[in-house]
Records
---
Amino acid sequence: MTSELIVFLVLSLVAIASALGMLFSRNTIYSALFLVLNFITVAVFYLMLGAPFIAMSQITVYAGAIMVLFLFVIMLLGAEQMTAPDALSWQKPLAFLLALTLTVESVYLIFARAKLDTVITAPDAATNSMENLREMAMTLFDKFLLPFEVTSILLLVAMVGAIVLAKKEKGARAKTSNS
Amino acid sequence: MDWTFWLEWVIKGLVLCLILLVGFAYLTWYERRALARIQVRVGPNRAGYQGLLQPIADAVKLIFKEELTPSRVYKVAFLLAPVLTVVPSLILAAVIPLGTSFNLFGRTITLYVANLNVGVLYLTSIASIAVYGIVLAGWSSNNKYAMLGGVRATAQMISYELSLGLCFAIAVVMGNSMNLNEIVTAQKDMWFAVIQPVGAFIFLIVTLAEVNRAPFDMPEAEQELTAGYHSEYSGMKFALFFMAEYQKMIVISMIAATLFFGGYREIWFLKDTFLSVDRAWFLGPIYLLLKVIVLLFGMIWIRATWPRIRYDRLMSFGWKVLLPLSFVTAFITATGILLAQEFDNQLYLYAIPALSIISALIAVVFIYRDLRRKSHGRI
């Protein structure tokens, strides 16, 4: 248990540090890389909780696919260097206020809930994860079939929408290609 | 969890790294010799017998080369990029079983580093992370050619990753497990490449694109981009990119062998003879090595004979041909296995190769007609 605690503490340090680094680095590429590091530490947290499937999906989907697209867009637009924001300066205090409220609320809720005996137990380690996987698939396609299908249709709609938008932009760019 | 357990782990990890490093060194020699033979040349044969010491000479040369860091690069990313490229190619091999197990000093030593239950997912996640090194190298070099190479590599790798994932899914469905060991064991009676030849074929094509090999080596197209994403790298840093590429070739051949060509197991009709790995454990790594050498020769052969695909064709080949085809093959495989289970009739399994070959032929016909129409339309 103690070794797990040490791993947890180190990991949480890494997670917090990478999140802060993401927020405060001036270069968007480094921001994106810090975010990748953060995603990977979160994946390791999932591993510690005995959910290897979620951990690997987290790395594949977030750290792999999505962040690569982010980097791609940042590089293509050449938006590495952030300019000082001036037009939206009134947002800063508001953002701090809202973030503070959210933090206070969530901390309060966590402590209020902690009094109740709702201890979340991790499923049985990584040893029988294939069984977990089967169970997960069964629940997903059995009990929650409708939400699952609705989600997939939602994703499909989003994809079609993205393609339509991209197509329009292509036509518009062709007109003003010399700008 | 005693100390011998940790010792075994460390030794196995070190041995795996050594195998990959030596494999990298001799793969360069193998490729140069094989390419030379195909092009009716001799190839490097001066250092040692048949040029066997050539990789060592190359390594010494690369170590003593001057290392140049251009002044306008993004330093941190520039230094990080080669490392981020090499590490995934090394740790990718950790879940691949090299053989069964043997007894040593009263302990059962298994011939794999990690027996992960989500092994296939591990492969996909590490493969998806492997892009970062190349992207960063291209961007941090602050050079237009390198940048274009990096962007091309990213676009290509994330496009072909989808088909790669579907091929993994085909193997998972056939092996009824995500554990690579169990997938290999499931191929005792029949290789998956025989049940699903189209899936194996797509996998081999996609892996070529994933490791940026010819004919998909657009990121390093010399005529257009000098050397692509590693234009600005020299000395040992360049050697790391070089190493990563060849190690990826080896590892991806190992994965292909594991998923579709029986892994460390013998050919299925030898399964009860004395050549079976169940009788002699040491045959496991040898079989895997033989399969990897054959698959690597395929890659070298393709490089020697095929020209590069044009970049737009490469993208449309990935998205419009390989992706639908791998969807179809995955669907056929899953349906065939489900029907065979439901009706307890093995005949449905024979429908899988037949139907998938038919769909592949349809795809080939479509490509042919499309290309012919385009070539007639242009002239």
Note: The two ends of chain B are 71 Å apart (CA to CA).
---
Amino acid sequence: MNHDDIIKQGTKVYSRPRLMDDRNMHYCPGCSHGVVHKLVSEVLDEMGLENDAIGVAPVGCAVFAYHYIDIDWIEAAHGRAPAVATAAKRLNPERMVFTYQGDGDLAAIGTAETIHAANRGENIVIIFINNGIYGMTGGQMAPTTLEGMKTATTPYGRRVDLNGYPLNITPLLAQLPGTCYVTRQSVHTAATTRKCKNALKKAFKASMEGRGTAVVEVVGTCSSGWKMSPADANKWMEQHMFEAYPPGDLKDTL
Amino acid sequence: MTEEIIIAGFGGQGVLSMGKILAYAALMDDLEVTWMPSYGPEQRGGTANVTVILSDSTISSPVLDTYDIAVILNQQSLDKFESHVKPGGMLIYDPSGIHHKPTRDDITVISVDAMTATIEMGNAKGYNMILLGALIKARPMVSIDAVLRGLKKALPERHHHLIPANEAALRRGMNLVVNE
Amino acid sequence: MNEEVRLMKGNEAIAHAAIRYGVDGYFGYPITPQSEVLETLEAEMPWETTGMVVLQAESEVASINMVYGGAATGKAVMTSSSSPGVSLMQEGISYIAAAELPALIVNVMRGGPGLGTIHPSQSDYFQATKGGGHGDYHLIVLAPATVQEMADFVGLGFDLAFKYRTPAMILADGIVGQMMEKVVLPPVRQRRTPEQITEQCPWAATGKSGRGHRNVVTSLELDSAIMEKNNERFQRTYAEIERNEVRFQSYYTDDCDYLIVAFGSVARICLKSIEEARKQGIKIGLIRPITLWPFPYEAIAEVAKQVKGILVVELNAGQMIEDVRLAVSHEMPVYHFGRMGGIVPNPLEVLNAFKSHFNN
């Protein structure tokens, strides 16, 4: 039985999003990036933004986002995506400009660019994948790493006396008058994935309407970095990550 | 014709703007001109000076070691620049801030009591224009007409109502200098 | 109005020239002695007239990455700063060069190292001409000596940047930034339309609209074989620039017995020294490199054949002298005279330095 036979036998209910490339991803099994990529591809297609979108890719695991989603992309230096997006949007105000950033990119090296772009109310969407660890460089501590969490650079667990507290940056962004919509989502169940998709739609729409900066945080898993099976990682996320980073809307002015 | 001029005094005495109006006057008279300030924290009350060069040919260095004319508004500037006036050159100074007078006898030294004149006119902001009037009378490198047109060009429109007061100060300064 | 002669500072001339050239965006952060560039742009409000975007960024790091983002969409974008700020920009400049983006960066140099001084310097010559950031790349470096050149090099810098798809830098100093001179501003040009940008920059990430395939602007390539090919392509571009774009100015070189090499406003100080020397019967010539990269090696080598020695005058501890020595292959005495820390030598000091080296 081949691919076509399967489709012939019934009604096609699901397929690879049209804007997603048919190629193997470099993401690990269980990684949240693949799901968020799929949602971004679907939302851009459904909203008719394929030709208007300019994505800004980060440094981090999603550095190759431009290999997977069939729109124009700019690959930014580490942490600078909001600055890159600021100029791309201001110079091309009719385009839909979004950044796709991890926790190290957005909340460590790029904190200034993140806060100032949001504070200026740039009409961009910031998609923020928070999995509490540096995946690409091999599992080091991120600004959002939880207290006690073991990483390559906190081998005995994060200690606040040595490493400071986990940085909960999204509520900070919600406080800024420049942001119009700040939400925290996850993609570990079908139901939360659907909710996350709606949040992305809402954010892209707000950006196109010039309402200000929209921030969609997705609390995700890094089963490789966390050294867990994908299933265990999902459970651990619900038990621990959600305690520090509870899902829900933090600000909605729309 | 080339005139190499240093104007030096305290920040706040209008040294830089005096040089600027002179530069604009040169522009009006189709001369080449450079205006090179000492810039930075000096602008906030320390010493300030500006080098202005006017010429009918291309100007090379905007930075000089000797000057045809020095306009000196305080003692520190006199101590610093008196020896840098070219032999046969000119030194104009306001005696009100000077305790040790210039001693050179190979240059023309002109004392212009601009501070007293300023007080008499009751226009503190006219101080530097009195000195500029004295300068262009002592060494007619640009016409008063060019200075007035330069003023108009240099000042933003909203300050054009100040031009008559400035003209009065300029003419007062011209009257303070009696050429031989 | 295009031919109107105006009096302004070099920094102001850059701002006015940028508006008239049809620059799409300026992103900058205040730092002495170049803040007048941003101040003038904000006062002129070009967004009301040409539609030019002007933005005060939160840092020089943000500024240069805004330039990267704007350039990636094919727009003509620029920034300006002074030495410490330009150090902060080096990472971004390397990315711009590696992504083969046209952009203009202005450095109105002040004395370093460190926070240093706000007074004039030329101590960023190495940084500007030898790369500055990481990796094998070059900027086209233009060194203005007059306010007129400050204005003219904005257009020239962008023309070269777009021609070769590489960033260009105006390397000025605090003197030419802060001094006022007469200037004829360049003619007013319309900003390019989106259609013109698409035609001129088919690589730009403008949204896929009408193209059918995606454009990706990136400096990343993990396949070393491809990355080496990319580097070879950069080097071919640099070689072409070296063939085509060397610019310099010579004074009194027909009959000179000695040569001074100086750039920027220092060249003008030296010119006055040379005129004084000639009155004293000492025949000195001057070469002023206008492009510091590509450097006028051949022009200097040619004049070097006839002279007894060369003096390189710079506001630094001796940077351009290395290129002058390369030009003449150590065949003759090449001396350096420099002042540092924001001190500017006057024409007499330069002449005395010359005499002390060449026993005149």
Note: Chain B is about 35% helix and 25% strand.
